[in-house]
Structures are given as structure tokens and as C-alpha cells.
Amino acid sequence: MATTPPVLIVLDLSTLMGSSTREWQDYSRVGSCYLPQVVYEEIEFLSSRAPEPDLEKTAREFLRFFPNSGWELTNANASHPALTPPAGQALSKQARLSLAVAQCAYGLSGEHPGELVVLVSTVQQLLQRLGALQSPNLCGIAPAALLQWARTGQKPPAVTQQMGATLKAGGTPVSTGTASKPPSPPKAAPTPMSGPASAVRTPASSSRGNSGGMRALSGAIASLLALVGLAIAGGFAWRAIQPTSFDKFWQQLGLPALPGQPPAQKPKPLKK
């Protein structure tokens, strides 16, 4: 069983437009990178009609980077009460994009229940929305935390905590909308065997049992040797601090005298 689940990185527009090719390459070290389709379309729009020259330059740089990056586009989508705006509320373009990204990350977590989906964004409100979803395999972090993770290998606390929740949950899919990969159907439970056939063990299971016994025996021997070592060290310390007391105890055990230790005195016979 794997000690850590696979990681899927979902990047929003604010993360990509605030970084460069070198940082995008670093992001790929952490896990499989996914780009929501709506984000890619917005970057295409900004590459020719951005309100700022620097933003347009970054968008064009990303469009050159993406084809050979190994990143994947995703149309995953899932609804949740926490991701539903109040009826009649008008949302700005940025708010609609953030909501679509959150729904995409939530949908992706439903498609991959055994993997940890990490949404990366500079929008704090978007990251807070993820906490309300209570999905065991979904969390959000800032781009700075992702970059440090990629360059130092140190996982952000939110990721470490959610990895444990992902492994504990064991993967229960959520209902999703339009998705590129529907969740696989559950496997049928094996029929219990009865009679003599149920007692037959395969070579693999026997090997696992033998290896488990050897590990237990090795652990017991190591523990015993450690106790013996502690006892010997304690004896040396006792003799160095209180030699008279130690020599008396040693003689009472009837053991041969140690180097530098006076021989044990034979008891005098009682007078008749």
C-alpha cells in the first residue's frame, strides 16, 4: 500500500499569470498538472487582448510552454451547495472564472477518489470555498507554497493533513457532471470459500506470512540486544561511580572477579 497518494495539481489563472516558464516547470515536479478548460480559453483571450502588456506577454509565453509541458486540459465539473451562488446574484467575470475552477477541482477529485487534488490559487476566497466542501481528497494552497514544495520537497501543512484523509477515506467518488473520465464501477466482492478449499494458501500469502514471522523474530532479537547493551552500560556507570557497592553486588552473584576487582572472600567456617 502506498504511503502517500498520487498528487494532481490544478492551477488557476491567477497562479499562471503571476509566474514564469521556469516556475511552471518546477510545478510539474510535484505531480500531474491539470488546467481547467475555462482557464486555458481565458489565457488565449489574454494573449491578444490583455489590458496590460505584461499580462499579454505572460499569456503568450504560457501558450508556447503548454504544448510540450505534459500538462492536461480537463473539463471535469461537479456541483455543490457551497459552490452555488445565491439566486439572482450577478457575478463578475473573475468571480465566474473562480467558481468554474473550484467546480472543476471538485469534479476532478470525484473522478480520482484515490488521489489528492490540490488547487493552487492566489484568491483566498476560492481557497476558503474548498474547506466548505469537506472533500477528503481535495485541498487548496497558494502558489508560493507550491513553489517551495517543488524546490525543497517540503509539503505544505494543508497537503500533509489532506494526504492522511485521502488514504483513510479509501476513495469514495462524488457525483460529477461533465467529466473527461467517469469513475470506474466498483469491483464485485469475492465469494467466500468454504470447506477444504478455504484452507488452501497460495505461495504468495505463505511467503508473506513467513516474511512477517522473520521480521517479528528479528525485531525481538534486536530488542533483546538493546536491553543487554543498556544493562552493560549501566553496570560500567555503576562501577565508575560507586565501585564498592558494585563489587559487593558482583560478589553476591557469585561471578568471577573482573579486572582490577579484589577476589571474593570465602566465608569463615563457624567455630564448633
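Second entry:
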Amino acid sequence: MAAHTARVLVTVSAGYDDTVETRELRYFVAVAEELHFGRAAQRLAMAQPPLSRAIQQLERRLGVVLLHRTTRSIALTEAGSVLLREARAALDAVEAAERRTRRAADRPGVVLATKAGASSELLSKLLDAYAAEPGAVTVEVMLCGPGEQEGLLRDGRADVALLHRPFDTTAGFDTEDLHTEQQVLVLPAGHPLANRPHMSLAEVSALTDLPLPRWPRRDGSYPDGPGPQVRDHTQLAQLIALGRTCAVMPESVRTQLRDVHAIVPVLDAPAVTTVIAWPPHSRSKAVADLVRTAIRL
């Protein structure tokens, strides 16, 4: 991989080189995840002896013990656990930088990731306002499933994203809050509860005739439960209209509903804040201009 020559700065004791190469980090991550030098070497397509020597050299370079070794097992030390976490983040950043660089050469512009069906009105206003700015570049919108925007932003497939607290994780990103709203229950029009002035989350969970939908986890599997499996908001809206489920959603969903839907405020549901997020190391003028436009809106 081209990142072999990239280096990550670390603090070490005198007498050794003051940098750690990404090659060494990849070696360590493989060993730390496999906890077996043989399996790690096979995973890296290399022989075991040079892998063992590389890890020993890394420990000498850092001046710490990363692995507890016995004849039967390998375990991470506290320092090793810290390096595993930091190494993963550093390698992800290197790969994201490579991906953004290649994408910039192939098709210049900004890639914005957002959850399909969410923040539609805000997104439309943002794109129109940015397009009117001097020097605006093309904005490619990636519509994602729940929680996917964060991953696209972290791995470099997106330059900026619209995230929603408290559902999405914003740790590690620079962010600006754009809009905060309450949540409502969306249910079929004509349902006996459609005329209620408000409801609670406990009452929503107790609706046996309208079980809550099941969204996919990050690994693609679905949690157990009586509700239907859903992949996106278009499918969810249709299932609600058919009387198969209900959903607690941000109040702005009103603009996307039809007369086959009804909404009831859910007073104790957490407020949802839409934020615009971008990598903290980004130096893209286009991203900065897009963020400024979003804040101005």
C-alpha cells in the first residue's frame, strides 16, 4: 500500500528514531487483533520471524512492553491496548487521506453524506444557497442508511456529513449545530390514537398493534422483535401507511408525509439536533465554504 512510507509522530526515549512507520502499526494491529503471531503473519502474507522482530523493535523504539508473551498465549498490556486504539485511528486517517486524494483527482468537488429521508428541507436549502456562492463546486450527495454517514466520513468516502445527535456519534469530528427539533410519533391516519394531543415513549413501546420497526445494526443484522425489518425511510413510510408499524421521528418529517399518515407529539422523546460534521484536519476550501453556508442558514 502506498502508505508504507507515511509516518506517524510519537514520543520515544532517546537513542531511537523518533517516528513509527505505518508498516509497523499495521503489523502491531494484526498481532493485537489475532493475539497469535502465526495467524497475524498469515494475515499479513509474511513469515513469522520478521514479524516477531518488527514487534520487538517497535517495543524498543517506544520504550514500553506492548504484549505479555508466554509459551501458550499472548495478551495486550495496558500500553498495548492504548497503541491498538491509536494505531487503528492513525491507519484509518492515512487510508482516508489516500481515498480523498484519489477522489479529488478523479472528480473534484465535495461529497456530502446524509441519512436518506432525513433533513430533506434543510439539505435542499443548503445546496441551493451554496450553489449561489462564488466559487461553488459540485456537491455529490450520498444518501445513506441509518448511521452510515459517520463511517463514510471517517474512511474518506465523504468530505462532510449531516449527523443527528443523539443517534449519531460526532466524536473525532469538528461540528456545528444547525437545527434542534422535538420528536413525534408517526402512525397510520385513522388509527384510534391519531387524535391524541401527545403520548409518552412508554405508551409508544406498548403499542402491540403497531410494533416499532427494526433497523439494521452496523454489521447488517437485525435485532429480534415483532416489528418489521426496514432499510430506509421510504419503506418505513409505506409500512406505516399500511398499518404494520409506527415510528418516533424528528418533527421535520411532517414535510414528507401524506394524508395516509398522522403524527402525535412524544413529549419525553429526546430532542434531535442536526449537525454538520467534517474531519478536523480538513483544509478543503470547498468544505469550509459549505460549512459557512450551513451555519448562515
